[in-house]
Amino acid sequence: MSTQIIRIATLLLLWAVHVAGNTFDADKVKPIDQPEPVTTSDKAAISGACHPYAVVSSNGYTSSGMKSSSSWSMSGCGGSELGSQVYARSTWHDDVWAIMYAWYFPKGSDKGWDFTHDWKFVIVWIDNPALESPAILGATVSTNKCLMKYVPLEEKYVDGTSVK
């Protein structure tokens, strides 16, 4: 997936969150209940991370984020008491299956610069989701500055058929 497409998709998502008329405080958005995983792609899901929050409620309201002046801290590993939400989509790209997982954070920080709304994502590349045991080919990880590619993925980041 090209960097330009990912940047455009991220900007559109941020814009959609920003312009939404109905918003909630970041710690008031309840995650949407998820169905039980059925497919191999479902079961390969990354299900947790530090400080993720739900950004969209079941009625379509969105998080207002947290202003840079708020006291929320990135120390430790917490998140909303209501639970977190991992957003995911998958598709074929250049003959490999790409699963993109995205996490929303109501506040971000980079080298002392704080900002409202932050998204991070990981793309896990597998050979074929229809196989009984698809092979993990690599991963692409977003940072505040760039995309990091890990091909092949080191064993310490793999737990059986899942990425840690």
Q: Brief description of this entry?
A:
This protein is mostly beta strands and 164 residues long. It has helices at 3-19, 40-43, and strands at 23-24, 62-63, 87-93, 96-110, 113-126, 136-142, 147-150, 158-159, 162-163.
Would you kindly provide a written description of the structure presented here, covering whatever features stand out?
InterPro entries: NPP1. The protein has 164 residues and is mainly beta. The chain has one domain. The chain is 13% helix and 34% strand. A 5-stranded antiparallel β-sheet has the order 3-4-5-6-7, covered by helices on one side. A two-stranded parallel ribbon has the order 1-2. A two-stranded antiparallel sheet has the order 8-9. The longest helix has 17 residues. The radius of gyration is 16 Å and the shape is globular. The two termini are 22 Å apart.
The rough form would be described as globular
What distance lies between the first and last C-alpha atoms, to the nearest angstrom? 22 Å
Sheet having the most strands: 5 strands, antiparallel
Series of secondary-structure elements, N-terminal to C-terminal:
HEHEEEEEEEE
Please identify the structural class as seen in this structure. Answer: mainly beta
Pfam families: NPP1 (PF05630)
Keywords: Secreted, Signal, Virulence
Protein name: Necrosis inducing-like protein NPP1 type
Main location: secreted
List keywords for this structure.
5-stranded antiparallel β-sheet, 34% strand, 164 residues, Necrosis inducing-like protein NPP1 type, NPP1, signal, mainly beta
